[in-house]
Inverse folding.
């Protein structure tokens, strides 16, 4: 059984502001995306990493990121689609993974994922078909409609989902195939598994495993790194 990682990084990064996409902004001495890829490449479980980027960025990523930083585990640089779900589907079709292999899908702008959870995540996905990292919701969550509270949800049942998310390859490919055929758009890859009626195992994540999406996220990541609260190795 091999472990393939798909890293969708084809978004515009519009929420971060400026002319540079969020995945190419610097964290430490390297772009955020490179920091994430280097951390993934250091995992002994990982066989190959497949980067999914805008079609116009493929040559740049191959020369300025993969070659420049000697990212030896990168198997392919794949053109993304219009939406994240399209990008992951493109990656699944192009990565060359076998049915019994495990696929990890990880956001290119989550550089602080907990390395010590990945082995168990892979094992659970291989056995159960799908597994993800999540942390319990800390705030009260209310359902709001038309500017008014409709209900207060039971926080004990609510978890904030992170990546990596792990799947047996045959299962996640079939879920994407069914979703595409049925016109279903999920908010993450695990939601496609759920839509198909299949189980998803949940493992404890890490509060520091946040997605760098806004200028505040980037400032927080830099501050945590400077304070020694997180590591990129």
């Amino acid at each position: 059984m091999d472990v393939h990682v798909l890293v969708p990084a084809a978004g515009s990064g519009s929420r971060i502001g400026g002319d540079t996409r969020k995945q190419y902004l610097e964290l430490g001495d390297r772009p955020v995306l490179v920091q994430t890829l280097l951390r993934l490449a250091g995992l002994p479980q990982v066989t190959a990493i497949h980067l999914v980027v805008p079609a116009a960025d493929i040559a740049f990523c191959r020369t300025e990121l993969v070659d420049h930083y000697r990212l030896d585990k990168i198997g392919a640089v794949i053109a993304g689609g219009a939406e994240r779900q399209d990008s992951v589907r493109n990656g699944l079709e192009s990565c060359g993974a076998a049915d019994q292999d495990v696929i990890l899908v990880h956001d290119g702008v989550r550089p602080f994922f907990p390395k010590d959870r990945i082995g168990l995540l892979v094992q659970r996905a291989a056995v159960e078909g799908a597994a993800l990292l999540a942390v319990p919701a800390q705030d009260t969550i209310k359902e709001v409609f038309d500017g008014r509270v409709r209900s207060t949800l039971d926080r004990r049942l609510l978890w904030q989902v992170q990546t990596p998310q792990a799947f047996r390859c045959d299962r996640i490919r079939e879920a994407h195939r069914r979703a595409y055929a049925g016109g279903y758009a999920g908010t993450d890859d695990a939601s496609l598994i759920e839509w198909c009626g299949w189980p998803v195992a949940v493992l404890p994540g890490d509060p520091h495993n946040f997605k760098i999406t806004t200028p505040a996220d980037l400032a927080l990541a830099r501050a945590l790194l400077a304070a020694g609260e997180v590591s990129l190795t």
